[in-house]
Amino acid sequence: MKALEVLGYSCTRAAASLGEWDIVAVGPEDVRLIQVKCNRRPGSEEMKRLRGFLCPDNVTREVWVYKDGKPKEPIIEVIKGIYNGSSTSRD
Q1: Tens digits of residue pLDDT in 41-53
Q2: CA within 13 Å, CB half, 52
């Protein structure tokens, strides 16, 4: 979350909740909904729910996967869905 805060986002963490998103990051022009995983992407059913989560165009749905030994280098995938087309990666 510190990396997002440095970029100007205000963040709320809801890890281990029953909701879809672990981090909600609100910036001056956009919002990022983030699901955090360790060593693996979400399963197909979870990805289906994340893709189907309705949100405005200025909101991104993301999965951040942290690999063992690289705690500061997540693999970030932007999930496209109802409003935005197909899935792509975000650097």
Answers
A1: 999 999 999 999 9
A2: 6
Are 75 and 64 a contacting pair, CB within 8 Å? yes
Q: What pLDDT, in 10s, does the model give residues 22-37?
A: 999 999 999 999 999 9
**Separation CA 1–CA 68 (nearest Å):** 18
CATH number at residue 39: 3.40.1350.10
For residue 55, what are its two tokens?
């949100």
Name, in order, each residue with C-beta under 8 angstroms of 59's C-beta and a sequence gap of 6 or more: 30, 31, 32, 33
Q: 44 lies in which domain range? A: 2-89
Query: The whole model's pTM is what?
Result: 0.82
Structurally, how many domains does the chain consist of? 1
